[in-house]
Specification:
Two copies of one chain form a homodimer. Chain A is α/β, with parallel strands linked by helices. Chain A contains 16 helices and twelve strands. Chain A folds into three domains: 62 residues; 229 residues, Aldolase class I (TIM Barrel); 78 residues, no CATH class. In chain A, strand 8, helix 9 and strand 9 form a beta-alpha-beta unit.
Chain lengths: 399, 399
């Protein structure tokens, strides 16, 4: 009797062992596939989330999860930074719909006569166009007529905007009420010490903007190649998350930015060359035709350096500045905002105004939709990491 | 009889199956470990090669295999670029011994009275100090007394040097005899079009040097952040391999450079802050204490821009240049090479000469041995790829 029982148990135990072994092997195989660095089909590795939208189930593909995507609740670690005469709700909403973070440029919208109330309309318009997170940019720069910053902040809070990008001068005064209202603040700045003080003032994340950027790179001329590496050591020591900004346009740069310690990438100029960018087609054409040498600096002599498209007007401004350094009155007629607006919104004349763009202008080869742009960048970054970088590492399995 | 045979077979087949299953599972487990992107012990993944040296077996750890390591037969994708008054055989040999590519600076060595024959001695000295590959740098810049380039090239060929780094003006005339002698040529330049023409002239690899670099960044001021991304698309389209140069000092930058399409990284300034660098300790101290804003440009008005340490002498040169643009005779007494040499080799005075350094000066926190430096950079790059980047990718196993 005992022997029969033992035999049955022995026989069963083997079957049990066989079964467990098989399950374990299957599980291992699954893990192997998911961790396979050299996979030929990297897209299979993406996180797919089902999301209800307009009563349809939409599948989102999210290969990257970073502090930026988590903080802002967005799908891809890509921000469309504030841009004068470009950052209207129509662009911001489409960037957000494509899974990035679209941003409305407050100073472009909150103009006389309606001022901050025009921004209220823009925020509402953006909300009609997207149900995804978007933000508002508040740039704090010395301009002719001081903008109604108080009104802008009030409208942002009243309209329930969740994310604000501040930029330029010290944002402490603006950050205070925004943080009180529970708004996420990303501060864009050009120096490590400014990043530290913005974080101290309450900024949740830094957008680190180097010499290569369009618009205002500051007066210290530290390139992103070094600035981002430095941020990757200093800001991370202080547990301050940051994203790369300035001169960004490609998926290889997204992979590089993440390597350097960033949590994502901010792009301005690259988003100007999208189908949805609400600017004249001639400007987009100029962006595609230009190369990396097609920008220059103006306003250095008035301590407010700006990187702009290298056209006849900009060269004239440089010439006058070298003759009359620091005398803004001598160049005002060439640089006033109204010329900028007209070029972008009316005439498409690329030559008779000064307009901001980054060195990323040399990395733009086409005009595509925001969705295509973001998808291509994210795919390129993912392929760079899973493919190129992994293939350069010598694996244990090779010896 | 038949039933007994069947039972035995059935019983055995199960055991066989169990055994095969187990072997397969073990094999899978091994592969999983070798491919595990999020492994906590990345060093286990390195390639270890046994090499005979001085009758001892030496174990080399090589985590990266790129076109640079393959082309030059070196262990790590790191080059120590040519540096005036720094690139002596004692440094080059130690960089090579540490697994990088050490480079002797010909123009520093081939000085009167012995000229190119002094370079011959230096090459022989370097060979005594290392049995690993090293190179010689030939910089083609406009200098007061034209160097004996012909003699330098002849000595390099006669001494059997395997690798030459050319830099500066068009290298075609120098490349021709070098390639005829079967020497590998890496050309350092600051513009995509120069890279294309150097490759056409026979250069095997490009060292792409941006605005951020020490020494001569050219007059176009394109930062490495954009220049490397551009090279990653244009040069790779033409199958021209390149390495990143200028402002390089960290392992995160090595990972970023590889992301952008480079095959490795060239460092100058960072190697000045090594124990083996044959320069005065005060200079090394200045490198450690400086930050990323501690450099400036001189010689812009004479169309030969140079990034140097931002000291009293450099600011004096800038001042004179702004008053007398283009007049080299007005600044010559402040910038002559003899002052540079004295600061580095005799006095250690950081202030009374102009001396080259890159923005990477802001990324230097310590003076260590070449071996420690290269090992740390390679480990950091590997950890960045296997750890940080992989953890940001959403794996299939997570859903």
């Amino acid at each position: 009797m005992f022997e029969i029982f033992f035999l049955v148990l022995f026989s069963l135990s083997k079957r049990l062992l066989l079964f467990l072994n098989f399950v374990w092997a299957l599980k291992r195989k699954k893990r192997c596939l998911s961790l396979n660095e050299e996979t030929k089909k990297p897209r299979n590795g993406k996180k797919i989330i089902a999301q209800k939208k307009n009563n349809n189930i939409e599948l989102l593909i999210m290969p990257f999860k970073t502090k930026l995507t988590e903080l802002c609740g967005i799908e891809h670690p890509i921000v469309q930074g504030g841009m004068h005469y470009v950052g209207y709700p129509s662009l911001a909403a489409q960037v957000s719909n494509a899974g990035g973070l679209g941003i409305i440029t407050a100073l472009t919208i909150a103009q006389p006569p309606r001022g901050a109330e025009a921004l209220r309309d823009a925020i509402r318009e953006c909300r009609r166009l997207t149900d995804k997170p978007f933000g508002v940019n508040i740039t704090l720069l010395p301009v002719g007529v001081p903008p109604d910053y108080e009104g802008i902040v009030r409208v942002i809070i009243e309209e329930g905007v969740k994310i604000v990008e501040t930029a330029g001068r010290s944002p402490a005064a603006v950050i205070k009420p925004l943080k009180k209202a529970g708004i996420i603040v990303i501060h864009k700045c050009v120096a490590i010490r400014h990043a530290l003080s913005a974080a101290k003032a309450g900024a949740d994340m830094i957008s680190m903007d180097g010499f290569d950027c369009g618009g205002h790179p500051g007066e210290e001329d530290v390139g992103n190649w070094v600035l981002l590496a430095k941020a990757g050591s200093v800001l991370r020591q202080h547990s301050i998350p940051f994203i790369a900004s300035g001169g960004c346009a490609t998926g290889t740069q997204l992979a590089a930015a993440l390597s350097l310690g960033a949590e994502g990438m901010n792009m301005g100029t690259r988003f100007m060359a999208t189908r949805e960018a609400p600017i004249h087609a001639n400007i987009k054409k100029a962006l595609v035709e230009a190369d990396e040498r097609s920008t220059t600096h103006i306003f250095r002599t008035v301590n407010n350096t700006e990187r702009v498209y290298k056209n006849a007007q900009a060269m004239k401004v440089r010439e006058i500045e070298s003759e009359h350094p620091g005398d803004f009155s001598k160049i005002y007629h060439l640089v006033k905002g109204e010329l900028y607006r007209k070029s972008f919104q009316e005439t498409g004349d690329t030559e008779n105004s000064v307009w901001s763009c980054g060195q990323s202008i040399g990395l733009i080869d086409d005009v595509k939709s925001c969705k295509e742009l973001i998808t291509d960048i994210v795919n390129e970054a993912e392929n760079t990491i899973r493919g190129r970088l992994s293939s350069m590492l010598v694996h244990r399995s090779r010896y």
